[in-house]
Amino acid sequence: xxxxxxxxxxxxxxxxxxxxxxxxxxxxxxxxxxxxxxxxxxxxxxxxxxxxxxxxxxxxxxxxxxxxxxxxxxxxxxxxxxxxxxxxxxxxxxxxxxxxxxxxxxxxxxxxxxxxxxxxxxxxxxxxxxxxxxxxxxxxxxxxxxxxxxxxxxxxxxxxxxxxxxxxxxxxxxxxxxxxxxxxxxxxxxxxxxxxxxxxxxxxxxxxxxxxxxxxxxxxxxxxxxxxxxxxxxxxxxxxxxxxxxxxxxxxxxxxxxxxxxxxxxxxxxxxxxx
Length: 275
Prior knowledge:
Layout: E1 2-10, H1 14-30, E2 35-43, H2 50-57, E3 62-65, H3 71-83, E4 90-94, E5 99-100, H4 104-114, E6 120-126, E7 133-135, E8 137-138, E9 153-154, E10 157-158, E11 162-166, H5 167-173, H6 185-195, E12 200-209, H7 225-232, H8 240-251, H9 253-268
Parallel strand pairs: 1-2, 1-4, 2-3, 6-12
Antiparallel strand pairs: 4-11, 5-12, 6-7, 6-11, 8-10, 9-12
Helix pairs in contact: 1-2, 8-9
């Protein structure tokens, strides 16, 4: 029997978190896979009653309380650090705003078996409103989302909404890099896999619903310059040091430096960069 640790992190969106867990448990009950699931969820000191609702509705969840400043990447890193103490066969990332479709878990595990549990499997997500593909894996040259084709396809890097990491991969790559606070960690993990020769594939069809995030506030012309600057320097915006680490690590110092200046141009002249 495969032992699977499901990893999530959340902050102040109780309804979405509970809906995600509800869909997850329903699908665990319906899966035909010979597998046992344990859930590790970091609540980063929510003030909207999220932790209390989880304890009441899902008492079996391994609930960890964060410091209040972990955000997505470091919250997921904490969940994974705790889960990895118990040597699971798979580690499954799920964003708490994602609703899994029926047989999502079965497809992830079946796809993984196709590649001898030696590859990362990224679940494709779509909008429940429009059916548009919103998250998944990206093509190497165009950096565009790869549309599902009915069978697994190789990708270059991926979003962290639904990601299955087998133990064989974890032993090579380890955890998400905590140098990143909120974003970038999922992209970094995919590119680290590329450097180590580890393959990554998207599922053959959409296996979850997740709406696409709006254009970041720091480069959105709807907001004032003061509002954009405030967001730009927050963990939810562009953390220049983290961006530089990511870009220099995977693309070289020249592109890292170029990206540093282009982000500031987007901040100052957002309307010219919207497309």
